[in-house]
Amino acid sequence: MFNNSEKSDQKTTEDILKTVYDALDEKGYNAIDQMVGYILSGDPSYITGHNNARNIIRHIERDDLVEELLRAFLKK
């Protein structure tokens, strides 16, 4: 039998972006600037290690992040 609980534990891209944003904001960074820097450069040092944000954001390909952001923007 397969264990489906692993799949339900996975966060959505939106959840991950919110988690990382909150961690950056809590540490006093300009979260948007830091996240843009990460997306453009791929340099994980733009993302704080606070609340494991750096490891969390690495679970998503940067292309997928851009796609999610563009999709959300165009829905408005």
Automatic annotation (TrEMBL):
Coiled coil: none annotated. PANTHER family: UPF0297 PROTEIN YRZL. Belongs to the UPF0297 family. NCBIfam families: PRK05473.1. This is IreB family regulatory phosphoprotein. It comes from Aminipila terrae.
